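Researcher: I'm preparing a figure for a lab meeting and need a structural model of a single chain. I don't have an experimental structure, so a prediction will have to do for now. The sequence is pasted below. Please return the structure as tokens so I can convert it later.
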Amino acid sequence: MKELTVTVQRFDPDKDKEPRSQTYTVKVNDGARVLNVLHAIHDTIDPTLSYRYSCASGQCGSCAVLVNGEPVLACMEEAKDNSTIAPLNLPVKKDLVTDLVPRLATMAHLVPKGTPVVPTKEDIDAIKPLRDCIECLACVSVCPAVDVTQFLGPTAMRQEMRLALDPRDSGDRIADAVRDGLFTCTSCQACWKVCPKDIEIPGKAIEKLRSQANKRGFTFPRHLEVAAMVKETGRSVTREKPTFLEQVGEVIEPYGPVKATVGFFVGCMYNNRLPQTALDAMEVLKRNGIRIIIPHDQICCGSPLIRTGQISFLDEIKQKNIDVFQSRGIDTVLTMCAGCGTTLKNDYPKDKPFTVIDINELLTKYGIEPPAKLPVKVTYHDPCHLLRGQGVREQPRQLIRQVADLVEMPSICCGSGGGVKSGLPEEAAALGKRRDAEIKKTGAELVITSCPFCEFHIAASTDKPVRNITTVLLEGYREKDTKSALKH
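Model: Understood. Here is the structure written out token by token.
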């Protein structure tokens, strides 16, 4: 037996004006789950505590709660000392019990065709990745679009895709999905990462529904314009100044000994809109022993097309970029755009002839020359395509702490992804405003991120300056050089 102390959020809408926190200490067996802790509280201390459970084996979804802010199944999550347990971000009926009925009532159901149809093995295999949902609604509780729009949520989209693949169903699931908010998803992938059944809703459902919607003519005009631009120019954004590729040669040598050689994939935003940020990154790489090969015939990675369902010429784009880097004998491709990185890593063929590494991963792998510590308090925005798309969380923080004082804030979507900023600017603005509120809570003077789309959007949503990690590192190096020159 061991003793654990936990804090539980309590709320009775009939009696309380707002939620309150209550702390309990209980004795449980080693390896106890959160549900065991709730049972111990209820049975030995406070029988008024309300929570929901049924199977206690991870199959029904009834006991989903937030533990330290993250959705989990209480019956599967190991209990830890000093944890906080709260309800999912859904309407609360009492304490940890949320009202699931309104959301579940919107779920589509199979409408049988007049003539019986037997699914083939291929049909069953296509449906299989989507059918394990236990309707816990953990995904809905973390969906940023649900907070600011009428979006029915990720599990509703999963169900629409499941039915769209089922030959027995007679419904028009593509039109239904569009009606229910298909294009409001920001591709943040939060739903997938909290799903206890690991259902890849963005890639296996939403992007596939958008592809079918594109064939039916549902794609937003602005998204069509972006696809036309990619097809015509190889870039998804317009050129507003001399581009990065126009300002650099094909090979950039480091200042000192070579630690590694990489091919650099610049991406559309850093090439056409934010070239100075990419140039700053090159300086940081040169200072830290990285030899950089930059193929000038590279083009858009295809991410804007994948996220908006416009994939008719996607394979040509992928092959073009693969050939460009392979022809130079490059075995490691470096990205500094989170969207490009997750696309090259996850959406390109698994047998591509190179590995892909984010700049934060590269710099922490080989180590950096310590910069001067800048007298500024900063906060860091996790780009969705870096944190959840690539699993890169600690590396940016390791770099930032070497150059500034870091104050954390919740890792939530800023609203710039999934085609939302261009297609649904009001939704993007609402999510940007929510991001700004969290920035203000930190008291930070500067926002740091590692994605050009996040950088652009957050800068338009807050009065704080927004910088890329490498730009801040370069400022630290310049400060160091200035201090060194003054000493000599």
